[in-house]
Every structure is written in structure tokens, then in C-alpha cells.
Amino acid sequence: VIRSHVLGYGAYLPENIVTNNDFAQRMDTSDEWIRTRTGIRQRHFAAEGEKTSDLAVKAAEAALKNAGCTAADIDMVVVATTTPDETFPSVGTMVQARLGITRGFAFDVQAVCSGFIYALATADNFIKSGQARSALVIGAETMSRLLDWEDRSTCVLFGDGAGAIVLNAGEGQGTAADRGILNTQLFSDGRMHDLLYVDGGPSSTGTTGHLRMMGKEVFKHAVNNISVAIEASAKAAGVPVEEIDWFVPHQANQRILDGIAKKLNVDASKVISTVALHGNTSAASVPLALATAVGDGRIKPGQLVLLEALGGGMTWGAGLIRW
Ligand code: ACO
Predict the structure, then answer these.
(1) 60: Cα separation from own chain's centroid
(2) What is the complex's ipTM, to 2 decimals?
(3) Which ligand 1 atom is at minimum distance from the Cα of 29?
(4) 125 counts as catalytic
(5) Residue of 146, 253, 257 to mutate, ligand 1, most atoms within 8 A of C-beta
(6) 128: left (phi > 0), else alpha (psi -120 to 50), else beta?
(7) Of 321, 309, 314, which is closest to residue 115 (Cα–Cα)?
(8) Which residues does the UniProt record annotate as the domain Beta-ketoacyl-[acyl-carrier-protein] synthase III C-terminal (predicted)?
């Protein structure tokens, strides 16, 4: 059986940090409101002219270095993003060129905040089918470009950043037979469009548009649907949820993370949370949180790590990895 192994990880956050108090100076909000409703204390925003592909390349370079491989080793590049530099071509092909990769193939996956789980599932299936032996899987976003600065209920929630992992078909380090991606689970229900969307695009308004959200509805679906995805992933791997060592969720909001942990009876100490420092970075949040927890030594080889997310569409999913 071919299984995709994680060879390395990397992350990048833009230098510019914006605190809740910075928002409070510009609009009618407060650090207290934002912190108690969401857990967010600060977020990073890309500088003017700094694009999603710039963040993606930096995260990818860090991941390649951590994996001990070079760009020439990569067969496929898949970028999860909802904020591409241009409508086309894909950020994936831009990253491919910037890294000097001249073979294989690259593309983007669009599943908003679930994007990294979708990209991971895509790369895993290419590797398992034998169509690629290695993959660079990236989540990269400049969500700041989609925000309506007049809408205080959404503009305080998001941040910019990128994270990446290198996968390969069980070669090199970490090749023990029981390690790697055990399964991925994807779900979507397009009837829930109006809960979370951007009111623009090339074939509707011809503009980029702004993010629109029905916060309370999203909250309710997030807790329920992500719990279903986690249980499906654990069941497919034949392990009880309580045996999972670490949960690496999409970082939308601390109350969603707490709600899921409570619903599944998971100890909060097993849930990786970076939302306070990063805000919601959409498709970048899972690999950023993963890089944080592997980097600080919490996630160790051999442990069971569950990645999960929910986003616009709605889309949601989970992936279970024996690290
Ligand atoms: N500062 C101060 N007051 C605010 C702000 C703000 N930034 N934003 C909204 N308010 C006010 C509202 O105007 C409203 O005032 P009113 O009662 O006088 O009308 C009051 O706060 C309550 O507003 P609600 O929108 O009802 O606030 P709620 O308690 O639902 O919290 C929140 C909003 C935090 C967005 C919540 O609904 C939530 O966590 N939703 C989850 C959605 C989410 O995290 N989405 C991220 C993207 S989706 C994803 O990644 C999964």
C-alpha cells in the first residue's frame, strides 16, 4: 500500500501585525469585544504589493528546507487559496515558476477555509494512485484584500499568511509503514452559499467583491459538521476519537474550537490554537497551526494528528495523519 508521508513543514506570516486596539482606533469596536467573541488578539496583514504567491513561496521554501529536499524533487504543487494574485493563472503555477520547477504540474484548489484539507486530500490521492511521487501542498491567503472595512462584524476576524507541507510516497525519512496520511474525508453542501460568500467575481460583477457572512449560522454549522467529519475520519482509521493525540483545526474562532472539543468530549489541551495570534487565515490556518505545534515540539513522530476545517460553500472535511 502506498501512503503519503509528511516529510517537512513550513510557514510564513507577513511582518505587519495589527492588534485589536489598532482596529478600535479606526472603527467602533474594542479589544474586549473581539477577544471575548473570537479569542483573536492580533493578526498579520500583507504589505501593499505583497501577494498571496509571495507568502506561498516563502512557506514552500521553508517546507522544502525542513524536508531536506529541493524543488527538483517535487512532482506536483497544489495551492489552496481563495485570494489568488490574479483570476488566472493559478498561484500554483506562479509558485512552480518561482521555485524553478520545470516539470510535473501545478494548480489551485478552491474550498475557502477548508482549502488545505481539500488540497491535502487531492495530493494524497495523486500519490496513492501513483500519478505523483511527491507533492508540495500549500495554503496561502491574503484575506485582507477581501474585507469590507465598513463591516466591523467581519473585518476584525481575518488575517494573512501561508503554510506548506511536503508529501512523498514513503521515501526518505518517516517511512515506517504505519506512518503517513491514514485517510481524508471531504464534504460540501452548496445550498449554504448565502452563509458565507464574496459578493463579486469575474463573471458576476466584474469586481473582486467583499466577504459577507451570517456569523451565527456559520457558527452552528461549523460545530456540527466538523464533529461529523472528525468522527468519520476516526471511524475510517478504526481508532476511537479519544486516541487521537492532537487536533489541528481551522482557526476561525476560539469558541468554535471549544464547541467542537466539548461536543466530542476532547480535552482542550489536545486542541492546537493559534487564532489569538493569527486570526482566521482561511486556507492557511491549518498548515500554520500545524507548523506551530510541530515546531514547538508538541506534535511528535508516531502521534495521531487530526486536521479539520469548514468554510464557504459550505465545504468541510478532516484528515488523519500518523505523524
Ligand atoms: N465590535 C463591536 N461590536 C460588534 C462588532 C465588533 N467588531 N461586530 C459586531 N458587533 C455588534 C453587532 O453590531 C451587534 O450589535 P447589536 O446587538 O447592537 O446589533 C452585536 O455586536 C452582536 O452581533 P452578532 O453578529 O450577533 O455577534 P455574535 O455574538 O454572533 O458574534 C461572531 C459575531 C463573532 C462573528 C460570531 O457570530 C461567530 O463567531 N461566528 C462564527 C463565524 C466565523 O468565525 N466565521 C469565520 C469565517 S467562517 C470559517 O472560517 C469557518
Answers:
(1) 14
(2) 0.94
(3) 1
(4) no
(5) 253
(6) alpha
(7) 309
(8) 235-323
Residue 64 Ramachandran class (φ > 0 left, ψ -120 to 50 alpha, else beta): alpha
Cis, bond preceding 89 (omega within 30 deg of 0) = yes
What are 157-211's pLDDT values in tens digits?
999 999 999 999 985 444 566 799 999 999 999 999 999 999 999 999 999 999 9
Rounded distance between C-alpha atoms, residue 116 and residue 290, angstroms: 11
Block residue for cell numbers 500519478? 131
280 is catalytic: yes
Q: What is the pLDDT of residues 231-280, one digit of tens each?
A: 999 999 999 999 999 999 999 999 999 999 999 999 999 999 999 999 99
How many whole angstroms separate alpha carbon 68 and alpha carbon 51? Answer: 26
